[in-house]
Specification:
Immunoglobulin-like; eight-stranded mixed sheet; 2 helices; about 170 residues; alpha+beta; globular; about 15% helix
Length: about 170
Amino acid sequence: MLHSTQLHTWIKPLGILLALFCLSSTHAQDTAPENPEPTATSILDAYPLPQSGYKRHVIHLPIGNYENDLKIELLAGKVQEVDCNPSHFVGTIEEKILEGWGYNYYELSNLKGPISTKMACPDEQLNLKFVPVQSNGSLLQYNSNLPVVVYLPDGLELRWRTWVATPYNTAFSE
């Protein structure tokens, strides 16, 4: 005979399985919805075509848990041969608003470089390395509902990574 504590440990998993079975057995609608969601291609059609000398890069972010605690960092750059000195490009990422839609897109301008230190390298060997563009405005709010559209000069590639916020801490006053 099951004790009441053993019975309670089985009720919750059984309820979850029953709910999953009911949700998985629902049927799709036979008719299309009246207001279909815009597709990725129709949203991208609203963005301007790249200027000559530029390419459009698009990031479709996955749906994240607690997106208010997430940021996306844009890393534009180029793979090239470098020596032992740290090197980078310098540029400005400008946020622009798509008129009539209110969507944001980003454009890298004022690109200079590569810039590096001039220390003597012991072996003078060149290696292929990703040389990033250091700029302001490369840390953006995470939003999986819209694509992140970035216009970069030809020859640059776009890499990105996600940052997760830690819980808030309170600073004590002294």
